[in-house]
Amino acid sequence: MQQQLKIAMGCDPAAYDFKVEILRVMEQNGYSVYDVGCDSAQEGLFATEAKKVADLVVSGQVDRGILLCGTGQGMAMAANKVPGVRAALCFDIFQAIMSREHNNANILCTGAWMITVPEALRMIEAWLFANYAGHHQDGLALMDAYDREGREG
Description:
Blueprint: E1 6-11, H1 16-28, E2 32-37, H2 46-59, E3 64-69, H3 73-79, E4 87-89, H4 93-101, E5 107-111, H5 117-129, H6 137-152
Parallel strand pairs: 1-2, 1-3, 3-5, 4-5
GO molecular function: intramolecular oxidoreductase activity, interconverting aldoses and ketoses
Family: Belongs to the LacAB/RpiB family.
Keywords: Isomerase
């Protein structure tokens, strides 16, 4: 377990209960997780929570981010608008590991309607243990260039 990692987690109302349970277990297992919200199953916007996590990751205030919504799709789309983010939408361990090892994903997105809490916890654990292996450095460099182009106009 990589307890030294700083992790930010956010959700929308559709995944609030899902997030609460995942957060509880992760904290019991010794992880330091910064919960950015949302704070209820009634109020919150996926794009707002995605931006909070994305900004924390890109600024280096946390090492990685986890975003949860109904399907995970909205969170991934919103987070990937922030330059420097490589948010991966995953529903199983293989996808999660490959997103780290091959694409150096820094945010994991998934959906409360798509997988169970135990599946999500196993996937998150695998993702946190996986490390970038340098397989696609040229592609990642090109994505970084796209980010710079977007910021420069």
